Automatic annotation (TrEMBL):
It comes from Paracoccus lutimaris. Keywords: Chromophore, FAD, Flavoprotein, Lyase. The keyword Flavoprotein applies. PROSITE patterns: PHR_CRY_ALPHA_BETA. This is Deoxyribodipyrimidine photo-lyase. The lineage of its organism: Bacteria, Pseudomonadati, Pseudomonadota, Alphaproteobacteria, Rhodobacterales.
């Protein structure tokens, strides 16, 4: 029987159980430009469009027909499409973000009116969240025991892949042309800059990157914090869009560790980072407000400051602190930022500037091509000190010592502050009001943060 494959954040053909199930008979692959997508940040929409192109090209190769792209809400459009095709089921890979969960419920209810249904398939995570539980059946709040339990059970094996030849049903509606979609018109001049610095998108590119990374994984543990070296995998944007599944990643990396003993320590470290991603998603499922409310409720009373000229200077990469401005520029020009620098810029905003972490989270959400609702929220709360298993608030990064340690020859700073300065300028709006010069110094900002924390603890009795 014909079926619908509702493409969302799973732009891959291998280990894609939803696509494999739908493609057992004639299938129609459909993608919606809906409110949920348009609420994402600009850079991640720009990146998603590139992923969609790559997926569409591969689908054309396998079926002779591309993805049907429609503008509108899935709960309003899917019932009509399913009726026109006489499809009983709509298959989707589960992307367990809270907003998607709401949409899935609406879609399923709308389909059931016509006696049809939505079928969700796992694949975005290593393992079903209900399986990783404490001895008393609760959810983990601390990474290390979470990781131990997950490793003990072992992640799921990669599931079914889509067939090499796919038969697509004729689309009952006319779709939008991929060539002139422009999902991120709000990027303005930034689009051309991002295009210039883009790395290849799509499933084949993800596998090639993994392969190249595994060739140098031996050095991962010792070099991953170096901002001036390409020592990490660069796979986060592929994972964000499901161009590769974490289960496949796990299996492929483990196999390399077994075949090449010298690589196994690096592989294990890499897998433990993948478990951080998993931990973030499990936390988000447990606490859907994680992007907007502190995990630890007493932190609602922390005296975070709202938006200010200083926060704006941070967003514009004009703090005057070289490592911080370099990282924020890297993000505007490429959509990416080195993990170590993400921690340093986030610490500066939330501690030296005492600014509400949610302003930083929003800026990252708008600017990151690897934006991931779980990882972004967990990490901002981790740096700000209000998350589960967070870095204690009093641990305040010193951007100068961080730079000396992780950018010893200054190459990273030079690249983003000098070599690519013109690229960064091209991303800026044409006219901007001038900002007063920065007032916070390294030591004064640090002391102010510590004082605020001390009186917060005194009045609320908050624990570290
Ligand atoms: P690698 O070192 O090769 O790691 C492999 C994979 O492990 C990554 O692709 C990622 O999926 C996962 N991973 C690694 N570190 C973390 C981490 N700290 N938390 C969760 N997963 C992790 N990552 C995102 O994917 N999207 C985000 O929106 C995001 N926002 C962040 C915000 C802040 C304030 C901070 C400090 C970190 C954020 N991260 C986010 C985590 C991390 O910085 C990136 O995953 C990493 O830089 C991606 O580079 P990579 O793929 O080369 O990483």
């Amino acid at each position: 029987p014909p079926a619908i494959f509702w493409l969302t954040r799973d732009f891959r053909f291998s280990d894609n159980a939803a696509l494999a199930a739908a493609a057992r008979g004639p299938v129609l692959a459909v993608f919606f430009i809906d409110r949920l997508l348009m609420a994402q940040g600009a850079a991640s929409r720009w990146r998603l469009e590139r992923g969609l192109r790559a997926f569409d090209a591969e689908l054309r190769r396998r079926s002779g027909q591309g993805v049907l792209i429609l503008r509108g809400e899935p709960d309003q459009l899917l019932p009509g499409l399913a009726a026109a095709l006489d499809a009983a089921k709509v298959h989707q890979s589960d992307w367990p973000a809270p907003e998607m969960r709401v949409l899935q419920a609406r879609v399923d209810a709308a389909l059931q009116v016509g006696g049809r249904r939505l079928v969700l398939h796992p694949g975005h995570l290593l393992i079903h969240p209900r399986l990783v539980r404490t001895k008393t059946g609760g959810s983990y709040r601390v990474y290390t025991p979470f990781a131990r339990t997950l490793r003990g059970i072992g992640p799921d094996q990669p599931g079914a892949s889509a067939p090499e030849r796919i038969t697509q049903a004729a689309p009952p509606a006319k779709g939008l042309a991929l060539e002139n979609l422009n999902l991120a018109p709000d990027l303005h001049g930034g689009r051309a800059v991002l295009d210039r610095h883009a790395v290849p998108a799509g499933e084949a590119a993800a596998l090639a990157r993994l392969d190249a990374f595994l060739d140098r994984v031996t050095d991962y543990e010792t070099r991953r914090d170096r901002t001036d070296l390409e020592a990490t995998s660069g796979l986060s944007e592929h994972l964000a869009l499901g161009e590769i599944s974490p289960r496949s990643l796990w299996a492929l990396a483990r196999a390399r560790g077994r075949d090449t003993p010298a690589a196994s320590a690096g592989v294990e470290k890499f897998l433990s980072e993948l478990i951080w991603r998993e931990f973030a998603w499990h936390l988000l499922i447990e606490f859907p407000q994680m992007a907007s409310a502190p995990w630890r409720p007493e932190w609602r009373d922390f005296p975070w400051q709202g938006d200010s000229d200083q926060a704006e200077a941070w967003r514009r990469a004009e703090t005057g602190i070289p490592l911080i401005d370099a990282g924020l520029r890297e993000m505007r020009v490429t959509g990416r930022m080195h993990n170590r620098v993400r921690m340093v810029v986030a610490s500066w905003l939330t501690k030296h500037l005492l600014t509400d972490w949610r302003l930083g989270l929003a800026h990252f959400q708008d600017s990151l091509s690897d934006w991931d609702p779980a990882a972004n929220a967990m990490n901002w709360q981790w740096v700000a000190g209000c998350g589960p298993d967070a870095s204690p608030f009093f641990r305040i990064f010193n951007p100068e010592t961080q730079a000396e340690r992780h950018d010893p020859a200054g190459r990273y700073r030079q690249l983003w502050l000098e070599t690519r300065a013109a690229d960064y300028r091209a991303t800026l709006p044409r006219s901007q009001r001038a900002l007063p010069p920065a007032r916070v110094t390294l030591e004064a900002g640090r002391q102010r943060a510590l004082d605020a924390y001390a009186s917060f603890r005194q009045t609320t009795g908050a624990q570290e």
